[in-house]
Each structure stands twice: as structure tokens, then as C-alpha cells.
Amino acid sequence: MDFSFSEEQRLLRESVRTLMDRHAPPDMVARHDRERLYPYELHKAWAEAGLIALPFSEKHGGLGGSVIDMAIVAEEIAYTSADFFMAYAGNVFCGLNIERKGTEEQKAEFLPRLITGDLRMAICISEADAGSDVGAMRTVARKDGDVWRVNGHKLWCTGAGAKNTLLNVYLKTDTTVHHSKGMSLFLIDNDAPGVDMRKLDMLGRGATGTYEIRFDEVAVTPDRIVGGVNGGWDCILAGLQVERITSAAGNCGAARAVVDLAANYARERKQFGRPIGSNQAIAHMLADMRTEVEAARMLMWRAAWKVAQGEEALADISMAKLYSSETYVKVANMGMQIFGAYGYSMEFPMQRHYRDARSATIAAGSSQMLRNLIARSMGLKVQ
């Protein structure tokens, strides 16, 4: 396996780093987190730099980037902010589903506006009783003449409240069959009549925002159904591999940032007349943190490489997402310990990583569900 980057990929990595340094310096990241502000200007910069266009085909106005290119971008954005990475990723994941499963009319209507940054997208799947158990969802759509009427309740919808956002809502259009046969994907404007949303007070991700949404007799025309009626399950499965690899890359980037923050602090912070990093206990903590992060990155890059080569990679992707998310949580905990009381202060960035990391083991496949997938790949019959 050759994990070395091409010259174009090295330039991509450097350009994303430069963009994030320019448009998302530490004080901007802290302010958006503290005041729970969506990063509209940064989103515009992503679009102008072609980062949103990157994974889409040239036919639809994209740049035809690979899954490895996506992982490079994800890692570098998340290095600056795991929260901002979620703002980027949600748009791309939703748009790729339209490119894969949408009609030519849907692609022509939505993808150009998404790529230029004039339109945003957000995934709406989870409900109060339907998290990992997608089949338990109760949001439904019924046919009413020439339109469908949507009723129900969604939770944990990341980025759904940003202006000009198209909600990608998974719901049931046939409740008499298994959810894999009766689920559909509807596209609903977040300001459509009958849509009521509330920004939730969450531990992390304050900038991108997490929302609760209620749908009351929301009218949706047939041209807003992606993949056809009852084709929603196929839409979920079509994007799962890329979503989890990119999420793993984001976890790795954020975890790298934690290690760098902690190492810099250990070199500068003095106690008993010397830097705390000269104490073996602290130095060994940092050595363990770096080793864990590099191991997570190797799993992630191997999974991305296998997908790019067209190989079967479900177990590799699951391991990469599992290990990267738990590594981010682990190093954030250790980083807080190294920072001491300063880590507990809202004026320093370690607390933000500590908060943001907690969602990493839940979003895009919980640790428990991923362990089930890995076990099944070993021939074990997990209930």
C-alpha cells in the first residue's frame, strides 16, 4: 500500500491549511463557538476555493476529487475545528447523495447552488425513538392529490437552521413493509410552511448547531423525492462508506490538534523551575497521545486507499471510524489533564475539544454499532 500523496494532493493539503489559518484563526473559532454563530464567511471561502466542488463530478460542476482528496480536506478543516468540519461535511454528504441517486433535473437544480455556496444542506434522520435503530422512525408522508404531506418530528439535525438550507429528510412513505422497503428521502426547505425548528442547547458543536424539527402537514412535490418513492434506504447505504471515512479523517484532524496543543503547552508551562514536558509522566502521556493518533490515521488512510482502489472495505472503514472517534475522546481527556485548571477554563481551546469529542463516538455510526459490524465481518452472529 502506498499512502504517499501526489504533488496535487500535497498542494491541496497546504491550500486548505492556508485557507483555514486565514479565515478561521483561533479568536474567530472561539467566538463562533461561544456565541453559537454559523460560519457563513468560512463557508463562502470553502466554496470560492472549490472545496465544496471537490468531490462532485466535472459533469455537474465539480472537480472530480477522490475519497483520498476528501479525507485530506476533512482532516485539515477539523484540525482547526471539529465543529466547522461538521458544517462542511453535512453539505457534501447530502449533495453526493443527490448526485448518486437524484434525477437529472434535481442535479441541475440543486448541485450548482450547493457548489457555489448559495445553498446548504442538512441530514435529518434521527428521532426520539430512532437513533441507530433507523427503522423505528415515525415521521411519515402521505399522498394528498398532487403532493405529499409530511408529519413528524426529527432530532439531532446538524446545521439544519442555517439560512438557505435544504433539509434531507428520511421518512416513511409505506408503514406496512420493512423500513428498507418503505423509506424515502424528501428535500424540504428549512423555511417551508409547516416546518418548525428549535436550536438545541448542546455540549458541543455550537457554531454549526444541532436542531429539533417538527413537520406539520408540510407539502412536498414529487420532484423533491430523491431516489424515488420508497428508495430512501438505498440512498442511506450509497453514501455510508464515504461518510464514515470522511468522519474518521475529521476525527484524526481534531485529535492531531489536541496533541499539538498539549505538546506546545507542555513545552511552555513551567512548574518547579522547568517545563512540565520535562517530567516523565507528562512526556509519556504525550508520547501515548501521539502514538494513538498516528495509529488512527493509519487505519483511516488504509480504508481510504482501499475504497480508492475499488476494494471491499466495510470492516476497514468501521475500524477507522471506531478507532479515530475513540482516540479523539481519549486524547481530549488527556489534554485536559495536561492543561490542568487552564483546560477547564473557557478561555483556552482544550475544553472545546473535550466537548466536541463527545459526539464523535455517536455521530456517523456509534461505537457500539461499529463494533457489531466489525464482529460480523469476522463471521460472528451478533444480535
Instruction: Give the spatial strand order of the biggest sheet.
Output: 1-4-5-8
State mean pLDDT (0 to 100 scale): 96
CATH class of the largest domain reads Mainly Alpha
Inertia-based shape: globular
Cα distance spanning the termini: 34 Å
CATH topology of the largest domain: the name is: Butyryl-CoA Dehydrogenase, subunit A, domain 3
CATH superfamily of the largest domain: Butyryl-CoA Dehydrogenase, subunit A, domain 3
For the record, the CATH architecture of the largest domain stands as Up-down Bundle
Give helix and strand order, one letter per element, not per position: HHHHHHEEEEHEEEEHEEHHHHH
Query: Spans of 5+ residues with little confidence (pLDDT < 50)?
Result: none
Rg (CA only): 21 Å
The main sheet comes to: 4 strands, mixed
Number of domains: 3
Question: In terms of structural class, how would the helical and strand content be classed?
Answer: alpha+beta
Percentage of β-strand residues: 15-25%
Residues in helices, as a percent range: 40-55%
Task: Give the helix tally.
Answer: 13
